[in-house]
Design goal:
SDH7; mainly alpha; Succinate dehydrogenase subunit 7, mitochondrial-like isoform X1
Length: about 100
């Protein structure tokens, strides 16, 4: 009896059962498009009271770029120091 069952028949049975077990309500990943209501449209409009804070984004970008540059400089300096220490120890070992 065990000899009559092969791997292909076992796997085909598993595939058949897994296909049947799919949920009845299959929703797409993105969902459906719904028109915005009046409240949502009003919330998305540009608010003149917030215009004076618009430059805040540019300041954040500038500070972020400065931080990135400083990080690169620190990493380069540390790498150079490690190289310099290794070079001086190498020179000291060779008489």
């Amino acid at each position: 009896m065990a000899g009559s069952l092969s791997k292909s028949s076992l796997f085909s049975g598993l595939r058949f059962h897994s296909q049947k077990a799919e949920p009845v309500l299959h929703l797409p990943h993105r969902g459906y498009h719904i028109e915005l209501g009046a409240r949502e449209k009003a919330l998305l409009e540009e608010d003149p009271a917030l215009k004076k804070f618009k430059s805040y984004k540019n300041t954040v970008k500038r500070v972020s770029k400065i931080g990135d540059v400083l990080t690169v400089i620190v990493v380069a300096a540390c790498s150079y120091e490690i190289y310099a220490v290794a070079a001086t120890r190498g020179e000291q070992r060779q008489p």
